[in-house]
Each structure stands twice: as structure tokens, then as C-alpha cells.
Amino acid sequence: MGVRTWLEGWPVYRQLTSHDPLGRGAAAKSRQSRNLLARTETADKVVKSVCPYCAVGCGQQVYVRDGEVTQIEGDPDSPVSRGRLCPKGSASKQLVTSSTRQTKVRYRRPYGTEWEDLDLATAMDMIADRVIETRRRTWQETDSNGRALRRTLGFASLGGATLDNEENYLMKKLYTALGAVEIENQARI
Amino acid sequence: MAECHPVGFQWVMEAKQRGATIIHVDPRFTRTSAVADIHVPLRAGSDIAFLGGLIRYVLENDKWFREYVVAYTNAPMILREDFRDTEDLDGLFSGFQEDTRHYDPSTWQYEGADVAAAAGQRDQWSDMESNEKGSSSDSRSEHARRGAATARVSTSGAGGGTFHGRPERDDTLQHPRCVFQVLKRHFSRYTPEKVAEICGVSEAQFLRVAEALTANSGRERTSAFVYAVGWTHHTVGVQYIRTAAILQLLLGNIGRPGGGIMALRGHASIQGSTDIPTLFNILPGYLPMPHAHDHEDLATYISADAGSKGYWGNMDAYAVSLLKAWWGDAATADNDYCFDYLPRLTDKHSNYDTVMKQLAGESEGYFLIGENPAVGTANGKMNRLGLANLKWLVVRDFQLIESATFWKDGPEIETGELAPEEIGTEVFFLPAAAHTEKDGSFTNTQRMLQWHHKAVEPTGDQRSDLWFYFHLGRIIRAKLAGSTARADRPILDLTWDYPTKGEAGDPDAEAVLAEINGFGPDGKPLSSYTELKADGSTRCGCWIYCGCFKDGVNEPARRKPGSEQSWVAPEWGWAWPANRRILYNRASADPEGRPWSERKAYLWWDPEQKKWTGHDVPDFQPDKSPDYRPPEDAEREDAIAGTEPFIMQADGRGWLYVPAGLADGPLPAHYEPHESPVPNQLYGQQQNPARQVYPHRLNRYAPSGDDPGAEVFPYVFTTYRLTEHHTAGGMSRWLPYLSELQPEFFCEVSPQLAAERGLEHLGWATIVNPRAVIEARVLVTERMRPLRVGGRTLHQIGLPYHWGGNGLSTGDSANELLAIALDPNVHIQPTKASVCDIRPGRRPRAPAAAPLVADYQRRAGITAETGTEAVTGGKKK
User: Fold this and answer.
1) Mean pLDDT of chain B
2) pTM for the predicted model, two decimal places
3) Are residues B188 and B123 in the same domain?
4) How far is CA B575 from each of CA B5, B525, B579, rounded to the nearest angstrom?
């Protein structure tokens, strides 16, 4: 350790020689503080994203380390938000890393009193069967005047408006091909 | 805006720093009001009166932008002689059919021309025709009933119109039946005195707004309007927006920089969910879903819904390209491009119609995809009882929201109305992947698509909705493979072969975006919707998004820093259509193509280069000269003159008056909310006569105005959001930060109301109306102020609506109180102005809760008919 480094380790020296004469900023910083690193510094990668809350569409930067989201901040490049996020947007790391977020399929049988476990592939197969059965049972080829209907009113769908465009597209495409008409979204609500 | 779109509000503050006057018209005092130059705390549900007053002020004081109005709006068009206005019929327009509660719009037409379809009710006309035909062979009332239902459902969004003949015009605007004169007469009774009386504001406040707005509009200056669901959540919500549109057109504030009417939408991709709709009445790009008609084929569908003039004249190309995207090689000219694969509408099939069907046991299954109706939609109890009456339910969400657990711990389990052992609904809860765990695009509130990239893998069974629907479709197709049933052809012929990635088999979101963008005959991505053809050679999943994957480049993923671009920032994301950032921007130049002023120059005609140029992509044919006049027989965009900026309209003009396409009148009129303690002070007609009502024992309505029993519910309540929570809470009530910031459900009341009802700050209040009783913590605040309305004092109560029983922050749901009664154009519920009583203390627990509501109903004399009357004018006279 040179004399200069030794001297600079002394807060009073820094206070007298730096732009912090009152010792309320950098001059007072301890070695421990100095060695702390922001999560944003230690990320493996930064991924460009968009805030999932309101429709302003603020830019987000998602900081990732070891395959986990470690921080989400505003994207200063965005001409929409210029790096800012509101309380909800700033909390979106908690949204995606919440400890109560569900990770497993839950199943409740008719008249059941508790949740049960169910394998994802089995659940998908059962849901496909429910759609096919309901559709078959409730199919309407024509109305009472013989006008073509070719539809089912046996099941409905209500989607949130945080769905991606690509998701909405596959939903509408599949439902329409199934003849399902009662397809709705938060956009009406 | 500062509360619910805080980061967007930075631009308002920036404008204020540069000298803009900020006017906040809102019953609530919020962070917006705190920094606004003028805050007008008007009565919830009285905005049409306020805006109507501004229209009258503009007309009476000659503050309108003459050159703009004469050239760019339908002010000169002459109306038919048999049109009757609300001035003549005490609050009704001509054509109202009381038995079917709907308008026959035929008398609303222009003289000399029929506009067969327009924005909104695109199928209005053909439904009426098929109705008339049917009445000879079938019972008339049956057909009228069905017709009434079908006539109300069709496209919302940008519209067009078919012209038969040419409308007569008077460019001097003197003809007594021209739109301008009709408008003047219609709004003549919206005087400052009436505005003050109805809205509960002072005349001075109103005039201050009128003066500031008109002083800041014209050649040199523009004013912008910004609204959210405070305007749309009414039984006359569409007409709120119409009133603003009339005002902004009169002031020349549309299609110009710093002008416009901006919808501040509340969810990351709610605009996208409308453009590529998961909505019952439209197909991607605002193409209407077809209705059931005799011998309907693709040609009749298109001719009934599209104008032959203006860009909607190309609806055949847009529709055929969509059918080709969905059914690929199976869609040919010989089979009408599989047009008969599309299911047909016969009625309104909105979310609330589904709820009513569920309650009646007429619905078996339900998918809830990131949506929590047990908390988030009107009349929570009806929604939950509907869920309890299903065979099966699929819920996809992050957390175990109330709509997933209603069978176990919903309010009806607590009251004993339901028991888990008695609920037969099979529930599948599938955990969803978050935005950081998938690729995809959101469309924000300014129509801009932005791509979010996958950052990490989801955990366990968490999957994207793209994964869910792709694999559900794949499994269903595999199970139906080999079926010869006619009904299964649309599934088996569907193009459904997206490439997948990774262990979980995630479909490639960019491949889906590429299909939405569309492909040309050579299989290459299209670059513009102008390339779409009706001959089956192009495929396009959503015509207004065509060009977002031009040259195979993911345009929504463009992120050139804002600091390195012009102020329009055209290289960040991609805005539909064609990356235009301001719609109808041809109107930013005068009819000759010159900027209205240097200060407001945005787009202009360059006579040397013979093209439109400026700061944005022209929302106009780029080489159409201002001198262009269409030949008599011109069609599609060729029928639009070089001076007509509103290219989606068949007449190229902004509509001050709507000759067809609206379910509740060609002009806005002030009606009281569906439930209101105040009589309508402008007309004998109390409410929107065409509103949709849903009589049901769980959906009783309060008496209104001077009707006996109205005094039992003397207070107006309005529901809204907080900065720290999001809608029904699924994305906020489970987060520690946000729950700590806003831990509990509360009601905002004024000190005067607190004194009148004995409410204590931080104590409890019980709020009751004909449908429910809830409790909330009391926040006594001067943010709420009693109003003088119609000569008496009126108190308003504010209720944030985010809460339910699950999560870290819990409480009763305000939406329990809301009625299901809908705007007839768009089937949206009134959340912004309803009635209630309030009393101190906690609400009764079971079994005393239901009797309390029943007691209030009895005291108010409520029956199944109360509040359902269509026409009230005659009764009052």
C-alpha cells in the first residue's frame, strides 16, 4: 500500500481534498460500501423488455444472473419512458420472482374440497377432451330458419390484456376454427 | 393520468414547463389535479353535459376553425327531412322502437345518399333488411326481437361506409338541415348555467376551461384530449368519446401535432387485444365477425360491411388474405376461401351475456387467461355463481387468484350460499409464464408494437399462453384426425405448423408475428397492406399489422435510442398502420397541402417532388396531389379527393354527425347514468333509452331521479384505480412492495359526508346498494367535495376496486356493488357512476348480510322492472 492510497483511506483527508468538505458523500464512504456492487453490475446479461402493467409501454432492462432475474430497471434508451418506471413497474422483479407464484398444475375435481396434483401433459389432454366433448354436445349447424351457424356456444373464454399479440392471434385463430364465438377480453371490460 | 399512467405523465409535465395549460376534469382530486392549472371536480357521469357546453360555446362564440371544418368534416352535409332530434322528441332521436329498445337509423341519413354502414354497427343495415324480409313468413315480433339483438352487435373501431348516391352539401353551412345547423340547434340548450347545474361546477370554472381551450386551438396552436375508462365505463360511453370528437373536429385539433383524442389504455397490450381481437364481434384488423343471414357468402359479407369508397373498399383483400392465413391451401376461390368455416353471430355474445348463460346453466366450459372476473368485473357475485355452475373451468395465471379458488374460499362459501361439496365445476389451474420468460410483442396505447425478449426459462409447469394454445390446438387436431365430420374441417384444415424451440416445445413467437404480417405469392414477408390482394395470392393474419415484419425484420424489436432520433422517434418499435405515428396526419396541412402554420408543420405536399413529406409517414397516398378530384365512378382509395384526410371514411371526412353505425343516436345527448339520484335536467328522457339491461334477482337496479325510493340510495359512488395496484390485483396484491404501499381497501368521503353519516377517519364503513353490501376503511379527505347539483347537495364516494380475499393485501371488492347494464354499442358496464347508501361500522356477516340488502330493496320499492324502463320522457310530461 503506497502512502497516497494510505492517505486516501482516511476520510478526513478525502473530506479536505475532494468536493465533499462536509463529509456527507463520497468522502465518508467506508471500504465496505466502496466494495459493494450493484446487482446490475454483476449480471450475466441484460435483456430488453417492456413493462407488463399499463399501456404506456415503458422500456425495461431485465438483469439476469445464473438464469435468474436479479433486477428490473427502466430503459434509458426508450423514447417513451426515458428510463423511468412507476411503483408497479419498479416492483416487477417481485412480480416475476414472487415466492407464491405457482409452479405446478393444480386440479380440483367436481365436488372436491381440496386441490390435487396433476401432470401437465395429463391436464392438457383432459382439457382437450373437455373442449371436444362440449363442442360436440353443443354444436349448432343451423338456426331454426335453416341459416348456417356452424358454431358452439358451449364454452367461452375471457383473456387478460397482458397477452402478447402472438398469443391473442393463436387464441382467436384456434377458437374460431373450433366454432367458438364467446371469446372475450379485458379490452371490453 | 399521474395516478394510472405515471410515466406517460412526464410528457404532460414537460409540456407544462414549456407553457402548456393543463386542465384536469375529474370527480377525483388526484396527483394530476395537484399539478394541473385548472381542476374541475365535476359530478361523475355528467361529462357529456360539460363537453356539450364547450361545443355550444365554440359555436355560439364563433371559435371554430372554419377552413378545417368546411373542408375536412361533414358539417356541410344536408340531412333528410324526416330526421327528428332530441330537441323535438324530449331526449329521443327519431326511429326509437320502444318494444325492442333499439333505434331504426334510417331517418339519420344524409339527403340524397344512404350510408349503409359506418363505424361501430357495421352490419346494422343488412340486419334490418333481412329482418324485413323475414317478417312476412314468420311472426313479426320474433323477428323484431332477433333483429334488435343482431343489429347491436358488430364492429367497434375505425369504420367506413357505403354510399349510394352523393350527399347534398351546402359549403356555406347555412342550410337549415345541414349538419352544422343541426349541431348548433342540438347543443343550444347546453348553456353555461345548465352545465353548472348538471355538473355541479361553477359557471366561472366552466368558462375558464372554455376560454383556455379555444384560445389554444386554431392555426398556430393545438390542444390534446386524454381520457381513460372514466369516459368509456358508462351506459352512454361511446357517446362521451363522440362528444370529444365533435369538439376536437370543430377546433381543428385532429390529425395535427399536439392535438388528438388519446385513449390511455390500462393494460400492456389492451390495444393489441383489440387489434388482434379476442373479442366476440370482430376478426383481426377490425373485420366484423359474420352474422347469420340467408345465403350469406363472402361477397355479401363484404358488400354489407364495407364501403366501396375509401380504404375499407379493400376489405375484400383484407378478408381473403386473413382466410388464406388461417386455412392456407384449403382456402380457394372455388370454396369462397373457406368463408363458411367462420362461425356466425346471431345475438350479442359479450362477456356479460356469457355470465347470464352460465347462471342459467347454459354454458359448460370457460377459459380464464390472466383474468379475474370474481373481483374485476361488474357484479362479482353473479360472476362467481356463474363459475360455480360450469362443468369445467381452466384458469391460467401467476397466482391462485379468487376466480381459481371461489369453490374453496369465496364470499359465498363464507355466507353458506355455496359449499364445496355442492359445486360441480372441475377446475384446472395452469401456472403461466411471465413477460420475462417469453418472446412476444405488446401494442401500447399509441398503437406501437414493442417486442419483449425472453430473459430466463420459466419454472416447473409454467408456460406461455402461446405454448398453451399451440399445444391445445395440436392435441385437439390429433384427436380429431381422420374425422369426416363437416364440423371438424375448419380445425383439420387450419394452418397450425409453427416451429418449436427448446425442451418444452415453445412455439417460435417470431414465426407467429411473421404470419400476422403476411406473405406474398413468393412466400416472402409483405411490406405493406397496400400489397394485399383479394385473389388468394397473399396471406395476412392482420392487415393493419402488415409491414411489421417487412423484409423478415422484426420491426417491433427495433430499439434505436430515442436520443439518437427525431422527436417523432420512428425507429423505436413499430406503430400500425405502416409505422404512422399520428393518424389522419394529412389534416395537419391545409387543403392545398401547406402546413396550417410553421409552428404546427407536420406533413406537407412537396410540389417539386410531387409527394407528401414531413416528420411522419403520410397517412395518405404518398403521391396523391391536393388537386386530385375523384372521377364519378372512382372506388376504394381512388374515391378520396386530395383534400380529404379521413381516408377510412367513405366520404373522406371527419364525422361531426354520424348518419349510421351507432346504436344510440347520431349525436351525443346528456343522459343521466343508469342509476342516478338526479333527474335529467335537459330532457324528459332520464337514461340512454337504448342501454342494455339484464333483469335478474341478483342484478336489481335502484330507482333514479325523482322516482320514489331513489332517496334510499342518496349517494353517488365512483370506482377507480390506485397507482400502486393493478386492476383486479392478480399482478399487485401478491407483491410485498405494492401491498405495503396500499395495504387495504378504503373509501374516500368528504368531511361533510363523514359528519352527516357519523363516519370516522380510519374507522369502518358499510356501503350498500340494491346488489351487495361491502365494508371499507374510511378515509375522510377534502379531496372529496360535496357538489351543488340541481339545487341540492350531492355527496360522492370514491372506491378503489382492486381487492379480493386472496393475496397479501385483502379486502372486499368494490365491484360487488356494480350493476350489469351495458352501453349498447360496445357492451361495457358502468363503473364510474352508480348509487349507494353508507353507514358507519363493519358490514353484517352471514346470515345477516343478505337480509340487509333485501331490506334496502324493500324500502326502495325495487321490483324486477325498476330501472329497466327504456323511455321515460312521456311519463314525465
Assistant:
1) 93
2) 0.94
3) no
4) 20, 17, 4
